[in-house]
Design brief:
- The relative contact order is 0.06.
- By secondary structure, the protein is of the alpha+beta class.
- Helix content is 53%, strand content 19%.
- The two termini are 58 Å apart.
- It is flat, with a radius of gyration of 30 Å.
Length: 333
């Protein structure tokens, strides 16, 4: 099996594992699903570890006479070790038992590793240029759509909690949620969040507050009469809740802008239609010769060598209608 065929098989396996990990991250599922997740991820990671180990050995054997070139083999070996660790973690024979939050973090890390390696190793597949171009645009549109959807959802939620929360009532803290944290300064601690509940028309609704952290505390809350699930502690300001989200959204939209700018910039230079390893500007090719204006019917970017070759073809046999089409009237420079 060639290297390209191995990486195609890896991509199929990674897509299956990534799909399972995304579903696992999205919510809670029956035990049978997590058992299947273990078997699938373990099999995929074992296959990936063997593939990268074989690739590392192959690179090392071909480059062992030049130690300075053997570094890629070491990189492949590191990736193989990472996948071996993932296979051990997800193995269904000797199961590891962690809290749900820990498994959620491990699933996200595994998904990130698979996605990152998928991007890094994409050149191994040698996809057609048109496919790479469409993939860039599709990826940007999908990510932008998700960001817009999430932003709109957050805005609607905040609007309901603050602008539409016109009714008031009294709530009672019935439980306290504790969460450990570690800061960059090395200090650690515990944050407490009060969980409160209140009644509207005989139905119980719930909310969270960081200002009341003792069970039994009474607090005034504001809620949306049309949807009491949209409620907040009346002492909580908009910026207390939304500042971090606003900063994050600004950063994400800034990243999307520069990503789009990079895509548009890359569209100005594309691989030459004849020499895929050469970049050529996407432009309108023309020249003036013997008082006549000539131009290339542009079916793709061409490097200078291809242009010179086609110009020679035109001068030698009068031109090819497919490649060239001189203007009907003389053109003076």
């Amino acid at each position: 099996m060639s290297e390209k065929q191995v990486f195609r098989a890896l991509y199929v396996a990674w897509l299956i594992a990534a799909g399972m990990l995304v579903v696992a991250i999205a919510g809670r599922h029956p035990y049978a699903f997590y058992a299947q997740l273990r078997w699938i991820c373990c099999a995929v990671f074992v296959f990936s570890a063997f593939a990268f180990t074989y690739s590392a050995v192959d690179v090392y054997q071909s480059c062992r006479k030049d130690p300075g070139v053997a570094a890629p083999g070491a990189f492949h070996l590191v990736i193989a070790v990472v996948f071996a660790a993932g296979a051990l973690l997800f193995n269904p024979i000797i199961s590891f038992h962690f809290r749900r939050e820990t498994w959620l973090l491990l699933d996200k890390i595994s998904l990130g590793v698979v996605s990152f390696l998928g991007l890094v190793c994409s050149s191994k597949l040698e996809p057609p240029t048109i496919l790479r171009r469409w993939f860039k645009w599709l990826a940007w549109l999908v990510v932008t759509g998700l960001v817009v959807y999430y932003t709109a959802e957050q805005i609607i939620h905040l609007y309901g909690r603050y602008a539409l929360a016109t009714a008031t009532t009294t709530a009672t803290v019935y439980d306290v949620d504790e969460a450990e944290f570690e800061s960059d300064s090395g200090q650690s601690g515990v944050t407490y969040t009060g969980l409160y509940r209140f009644l509207v028309h005989g139905k119980t609704y719930y909310g969270r507050t960081g200002n009341y952290t003792d069970v039994g505390d009474k607090l005034a809350i504001r809620y949306n009469p049309a949807d009491p699930d949209e409620n907040r502690d009346s002492t909580e300001g908009l910026m207390d809740r939304a500042l971090t989200s606003i900063i994050g959204i600004i950063i994400i939209f800034g990243a999307l802008y520069f990503w789009l700018k990079w895509i548009l910039q890359s569209e100005k230079t594309l691989p030459c239609v004849k020499h895929q390893d050469r970049q050529a500007k996407k432009r309108f090719y023309h020249w003036v010769e013997n008082g006549r204006f000539h131009y290339v019917v542009d079916d793709g970017p061409r490097c200078d060598e291809c242009l010179a070759e086609m110009r020679g073809l035109h001068c030698g046999d009068g031109g090819s209608e497919f490649l060239y089409k001189p203007l009907p009237e003389p053109f003076s420079a």
